[in-house]
Amino acid sequence: MPTNSKEAQSVDSTHKSSCYFDPSILKTAKKPGYFHKLEALEYVHFKRPASDEHQYLDIGCGSGGFTKDALLEKVHPCRRIVAVDREEILLEYARKHASHSNISYELFDIEKDDPRALIDKYGQFDRIYSFLALQCVRDLKNAYRNMFSLLKQGGEGALVTLTGSVITDVMNELHCTREWKDYVPDPTEFYSERFFFDAPIVAEMVEEAEREASAVAGLNLVSCSVYDSQWIMPNVDAWIDLYVPVFKLDAKIPEEKRGAFRKYCRDLLENKTTSRTEGVTMRHSFVVVHLEKLSENPPKANPIST
Predict the structure, then answer these.
(1) How many CB atoms within 10 Å of residue 185?
(2) What's the CA angle centered on 144, arms 4 and 225, to 5 degrees?
(3) Long-range Cβ pairs for the range 247-250 (8 Å, 24+)
(4) Does the pLDDT at position 5 exceed 70?
């Protein structure tokens, strides 16, 4: 069984890093998202029961904390989880801080890489999971084509994707503000064109994109659920302390401007979050997709119309 040891090398090592958040912060940061990621799986009803002979693929595992501390227990029993990400810096962190004998970490970009090397090393997968990663995939059709190749016949996918959120709206507003534009990264460079910034989530548009991509890839769209989730922290400052360092929003802010920057972030968040007796809630919007591979034969490409 492959492990996270040095001899278990990644199937691809040609990736250029574009990582926009700091994995080391996640070690001590509170993780309100763990519960909500697992909660999203309630929208997926797998047709095939779990088995200790199954192996699963986790796409966009990031720093590995959720894979090891939450997903592994949730999908038990299984033979192995192969957790992949396109950022080597995140995988290095995962191998160091989230190692487990039943998890193998591999460098792989679901959007751009050829899946054959991964299949040659591990074989096809009984299930594919992905949590808050596919919002960064611009070519969803090609990502789904790769999932088709990676799944066994009868295999299923449970994909939880962010479609918009208060924090990304705040990031976008910060970047569009003259005072902070040169310091704060442009979030539109990291997220796909399907992502909603400062706009209501249009469920019909999200669902249509999923229907089209799954059909092109030859995958059966079993279900597609679009909904809002309210995450809670004790106060606005707790949200700032979580997200500002994770997304490196203040990495380029001069020391003399950091106080003003934090105040500006606080003002934005106070206007976009909801204060309750138990804490401050922040909206995160999701689409949860259940896919199924019914046939080993991929669909034929449509001829280009002239």
Answers:
(1) 17
(2) 100
(3) 247/20, 247/21, 247/167, 247/171, 247/185, 248/20, 248/21, 248/22, 248/185, 249/171, 249/174, 249/184, 249/185, 250/183
(4) no
Which top CATH class is 23-163+194-231+282-292? Answer: alpha beta
Q: Rounded to an integer, what distance in angstroms lies between the CA atom of residue 211 and that of residue 226?
A: 13
| Alpha-carbon span 206 to 216, nearest angstrom | 16
Cα(42)–Cα(290) distance, rounded to whole angstroms? 11
pLDDT digits (tens, 9 = 90+) for 14-63: 455 455 566 666 655 546 678 899 999 999 999 999 999 999 999 999 99
pTM to 2 decimal places: 0.89
Residues 6+ apart with CB under 8 A from 51: 77, 78, 126
Q: Is it true that the peptide bond before 77 is cis, omega within 30 degrees of 0?
A: yes
What ranges do the domains of the chain cover? Answer: 23-163+194-231+282-292
- What is the C-alpha separation between 135 and 59, in angstroms, rounded? 12
Structure tokens at 157: 């996918």
Task: Compute the distance between CA of residue 190 and CA of residue 211 in angstroms, rounded to an integer.
Answer: 23
Q: Are strands 274-276 and 279-292 parallel, antiparallel or unpaired?
A: antiparallel
* Cα 275-281-285 angle, rounded to 5 deg: 145
Q: Which residue has the tokens 């046939």?
A: 295
> Closest by alpha carbon to 166, among 29, 40, 22, 32?
32
Environment class of 182 (CB within 10 Å of its CB; exposed 0-12, middle 13-18, buried 19+): exposed
Integer Cα distance of 289 and 163 in angstroms:
12
